[in-house]
Amino acid sequence: ADYVQPVVAVKLLLTTEEDFNTELTIECKVDGSDLLNNDDRDKFLGRVIFRVKVS
User: In terms of domain of life, where is this protein from (predicted)?
Assistant: First the structure.
């Protein structure tokens, strides 16, 4: 009951016209020597993927 889910914040720096009206994929992944984040049975283990489109 003490577990608190992590919060992920993303700041997009869109600088060219090509950056807009295009679907962008953003992957956030935990990394550390004592963390498990690579398992063939669970491709989302230790990561979250966002798809965003800014118009």
Answer: Eukaryota
